[in-house]
Structure formats: structure tokens, C-alpha cells
Write a structure and sequence with these properties.
338 residues, alpha/beta, 6-stranded mixed β-sheet, 4-stranded parallel β-sheet, 11 helices, globular
Length: 338
């Protein structure tokens, strides 16, 4: 999926006075994820992103982030320097839209009244028009770029017929009639990531953070499906992925579309929501013992994932800080924790 990250998306949280800190941090973590994971998204930015932000006193980014964090007493949550690093990573990892081969330049017949996009201080005419004209549909090919806009649109879907358009296609000017501009608009990073279910995210995951996203959104799916849910509120900081976790998934048919992948995903989510399907037990120092294994102040636990066949267990540490570290998956014949 191709996505344009607009200047507005890069700085959207700065315009919210009452934004939840978890939502604020999630926005930037997702932007970073989008820009670094080609398996999920192919990301672009506008060539004049920095100029647009500069014209509206939102660049250099350090001062912008510093002022916002100070104003809202968020300096203990994250530093402006960390946000600048993340901002720069997004810009560096995204392709300049002018260099993307399947983006086409359009000249629209002046009589066509294009649907209105609401304006903000950092969304100029160039940005609006570029978003509008990046979907290209002809008789043989279909190119779609799905722009990411944040709290800046009045429609979720543009699906309009433009009577006449000139298109610069590989240096050749092509005239099209009844051009169909099919473009999806997303109000937020959370809307965009919802293109993938938690199961999709898990199947495509190869990194700690993508697995964390899959688990986080599985927790949300379970919570949303329960009308009267009193489960724990899970955020990305509620749990960690251990250094041997991913290797153990690959070894026990729990990664990708493996036999036990979805069972494990569901079990982890319910554990974090404090609604486990099976009993959570300490991982004792001796078989049948009652003294738990420890790592400093951390305590080892195990949770049955499957009770027959391989008898898979999820091994995890309850850390002194209150978070859970997902250590590894083990089977009944070799129960270990890393």
C-alpha cells in the first residue's frame, strides 16, 4: 500500500490542546513504523514539506516540540530531542513524491470543481491538489496512492469522475476523459493501521515493534467486542518483547500463518487484559515446587497455550516496574524461560 504522509500528519498532534499522551506517542510511533516497513506501507512525503512547515512556524521541529511539551507538562514523558529524531527518521525513510515512478502530474480542466478539503495553517493548495491527483487509472493499469491526512478532511473517500484531464505520463502528455480519481483519505494513523487486522499484522510481523502492534490491536479488538468490558487498559508500554521471543515463535509454529499463531496471539492479548483463558502459574525452580524462578526482582510465569499435542506454554516475566516481558514460547518437553 502506498501512502503519502502530509506535512499536516507530521505535526497534527501539535494542534490538539487536550490530546491523550498515549495517543500523542502512538501517532509518532506509527508514523515511524509506516516509514520503516515496506512490507506494510510504501511511504512518500511532499517535496516541499519542510518549506510548508517553516512558513507556518513549525520548523525547526525541535523548538516546536519543545514548546508543545513544555506547555502541556509532558517533558517527563518524552524529550523534544527524541521527537526530532523520530521526525527526521520519517523524513529520511520516506521517498520524495517527485521521485516515485508511478506518480503522475495532472492538469485539471478549470471547469471542474474539486471536492473541498478543509484548510489548516499547514495544508496549502499545493498539498491539497497533489493529494487529489495522485490516483491514476487507465485501461491497463491502476496506480493508487493513499494519502495520510490527520483531522483535516471532510470525506473518507474521494471517488469522483473528472471530465477532462491532461496527464504527464513518462514524459508524454496524455489526455484522459472521464478520469476516475479514486483516493482514500485517512484522518489519523490509527485509521490507516486499521487497514490491517491484528491477525494480518501478526502474520506479516518480523520485528519486535510489529509484533507489539499486533498484540496491542488484538487487545483493542477484544475490548471493543465486549459491551461491558472491565479489562485492563493496555498500551504499548504495558508489555515488552524479550530478545528470544521471535526466535521461539519461529521454532514452535507461532509466527506468520503458523499452526498456533492465532491461538498464541489471542492468549497473549487476554493475558494482558487480565482475562486469561487458562490459569497463569508460577514457573517454579523445581518440578512441583512453589518457589518461583526470579531474575533480580522479576518473577517467572507460564501460561498454557495448548494443552494437548505439543503442550505449548507462553513463558513471561512479571517485572518489578509492573510490565510484562514476553520471554518465549516453550513446549512440554523443554520448558525453559530466557
Amino acid at each position: 500500500m502506498q501512502v503519502i504522509i502530509t506535512p499536516h500528519a507530521l505535526m497534527a498532534p501539535i494542534h490538539h490542546d487536550n490530546i491523550n499522551i498515549d495517543d500523542f506517542l502512538l501517532h509518532y510511533m506509527l508514523l515511524n513504523f509506516f516509514s520503516r516497513n515496506d512490507d506494510f506501507f510504501s511511504t512518500c512525503v511532499f517535496s516541499d514539506t519542510v518549506e510548508i512547515l517553516s512558513e507556518n512556524n513549525l520548523f525547526p521541529a525541535f523548538q516546536t516540540f519543545h514548546n508543545y511539551l513544555h506547555q502541556h507538562d509532558l517533558e517527563e514523558e518524552i524529550s523534544p530531542r527524541d521527537l526530532v529524531t523520530l521526525f527526521n527518521n520519517v523524513m529520511q525513510n520516506c521517498e520524495d513524491i517527485k521521485e516515485v515512478n508511478d506518480v503522475h502530474e495532472f492538469e485539471i480542466d478549470g471547469r471542474f470543481s474539486f471536492p473541498q478539503i478543509t484548510t489548516t495553517p499547514i495544508c496549502n493548495n499545493f498539498t491539497n491538489n497533489s493529494v487529489a491527483f495522485c490516483g491514476y487509472l487507465d485501461k491497463t493499469k491502476e496506480f493508487r496512492i493513499l494519502p495520510l491526512l490527520d483531522c483535516n478532511i471532510v470525506s473518507d473517500q474521494y471517488d469522483y469522475i473528472i471530465p477532462k484531464v491532461c496527464c504527464l505520463d513518462g514524459g508524454e502528455v496524455v489526455e484522459l476523459e472521464n478520469f476516475e480519481a479514486s483516493i482514500s483519505l485517512y484522518k489519523s494513523c490509527a485509521d490507516l493501521i486499521s487497514c490491517y487486522s491484528s491477525s494480518d499484522l501478526w502474520r506479516k510481523s518480523t520485528t519486535d515493534f510489529s509484533y507489539k502492534l499486533a498484540i496491542f490491536y488484538k487487545c483493542k479488538e477484544i475490548s471493543d467486542s465486549q459491551a461491558d468490558s472491565f479489562g485492563k487498559n493496555v498500551c504499548l508500554d504495558s508489555f515488552e518483547v524479550g530478545s528470544r521471543f521471535i526466535d521461539s515463535l519461529n521454532s514452535h509454529q507461532c509466527s506468520g500463518s503458523g499452526r498456533f499463531a492465532m491461538t498464541l496471539l489471542d492468549s497473549i492479548a487476554r493475558l494482558l487484559l487480565e482475562e486469561p483463558k487458562n490459569e497463569v502459574k508460577i514457573f517454579a525452580t523445581t518440578a512441583g515446587g512453589s518457589t518461583p524462578r526470579t531474575r533480580g526482582g522479576d518473577v517467572a510465569y507460564r501460561l498454557h497455550i495448548t494443552k494437548s499435542g505439543e503442550g505449548l506454554r507462553l513463558m513471561f516475566w512479571q517485572k518489578t516496574c509492573g510490565t510484562i516481558e514476553l520471554a518465549n514460547v516453550a513446549n512440554k518437553s523443554e520448558i525453559v524461560i530466557y
